[in-house]
């Protein structure tokens, strides 16, 4: 058993999970502002999409912190980051940059890109031993399939 790996996984899960939980809480508490942001970014059905995103961040963030359904929670949040990159980061980086280097600098420094990478790593690595997935055998059942 690799305890250091499990410790790093719990730190990553908890850090990213708390961040998404708090973000989702704020978005769910002020749905009109968040829907207006979605409308400004050109996201279809902004009221529905913003509500779904807020609750996804809140619920899936909490699951990450707990280490429950970790792979599913991380994958779901990764989908939200793909949407954020497509609708917000990519256009902003394109608009702010006049060179390929400038675009790449804007894009790869975005928090959404970095969060996507961490979420994909968590989806691939799983929760580690210090998670609720472990005592309930969720991870073991998923690996058998």
TrEMBL record:
Q: Does the keyword Transmembrane helix apply?
A: yes
Q: Where's it mainly located?
A: membrane
Listed GO cellular component terms? plasma membrane
Transmembrane spans: 7-28, 48-66, 73-93, 113-132
Q: How does it sit in the membrane?
A: Multi-pass membrane protein
UniProt-listed PANTHER family: INNER MEMBRANE PROTEIN YPHA-RELATED, OXIDOREDUCTASE CATD-RELATED
Q: Record's family?
A: Belongs to the DoxX family.
Q: What is this protein called?
A: DoxX family protein
């Amino acid at each position: 058993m690799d305890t250091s790996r499990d410790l790093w996984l719990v730190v990553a899960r908890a850090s990213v999970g708390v961040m998404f939980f708090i973000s989702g809480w704020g978005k769910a508490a002020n749905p009109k502002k968040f829907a207006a942001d979605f409308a400004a970014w050109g996201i279809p059905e902004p009221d529905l999409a913003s509500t779904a995103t807020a609750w996804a961040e809140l619920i899936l963030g909490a699951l990450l912190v707990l280490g429950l359904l970790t792979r599913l929670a991380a994958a779901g949040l990764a989908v939200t980051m793909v949407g954020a990159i497509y609708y917000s980061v990519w256009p902003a980086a394109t608009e702010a940059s006049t060179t390929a280097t400038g675009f790449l600098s804007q894009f790869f420094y975005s928090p959404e890109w970095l969060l996507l990478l961490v979420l994909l790593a968590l989806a691939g690595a799983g929760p580690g031993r210090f998670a609720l997935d472990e005592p309930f055998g969720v991870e073991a059942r998923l690996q058998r399939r």
